[in-house]
Design a protein that fits this description.
About 40% of the residues lie in helices and about 15% in strands. The chain is α+β, with helices and mostly antiparallel strands. The strands form two sheets. It has a six-stranded mixed beta sheet, sandwiched between helices. A hairpin with a 5-residue loop joins strand 8 (about 170-175) and strand 9. The radius of gyration is 26 Å and the shape is globular. It starts with a helix and ends in a 6-residue tail after the last helix. The relative contact order is 0.16.
Length: about 200
Amino acid sequence: MKKRDLLSLLTVTLGFAAAGAIIAAITVTLVFAAVGTHSTLTQAHGGVSRPTQTPVAAAAAPAESEASARVNVKAIAARLEFLGDKPVLTGHPLLLEFWATWCPPCRASIPHLNKVDEQFHHRGLQIVGITGEDKAVVERFRARTPMNYAVALDTGHAVANEFQVQGIPQAWLLDKEGQVVWTGHPMELDEQTIARVLLIHPAT
């Protein structure tokens, strides 16, 4: 075989080998990507089950992206320590807000939540402000800052961790079945959005 023919054969052989390696690499990458996506799609977090890639704590997520999220309200309520009378949460539209006394935006949201409570409590809406702070700190704060809705302590941030809270204030609006209707900054919650859960829970 001539030297030129030998070089041509070697070039073709190496070309096929390189192409095979590239195809194998692409196949492995696609397999790992599929496994990773499946793992994300099937995640569950305690009282909150969510078969989507977006975490429940995504700020101001539109209601459409929250349609499949459902909260086990009974399990969540059992983990909270309420200051004062414990409200009945199951079977009611529910607004959960994660906050802290040291957080200026949280403090600024309190008058708005008081107004929402005054306007919709008689129609069944329950509001719960949830904080992981010490009981004495929260009670001193409430003594000088009126909070007309329920306030609960989240010891060890167990409930906040289940909701994957990454920033406060952050609120979740649930219908009476525990279905997430809306999530975002409490100051952005409007009457029309609240009315959507009250339509299926008329005043008694």
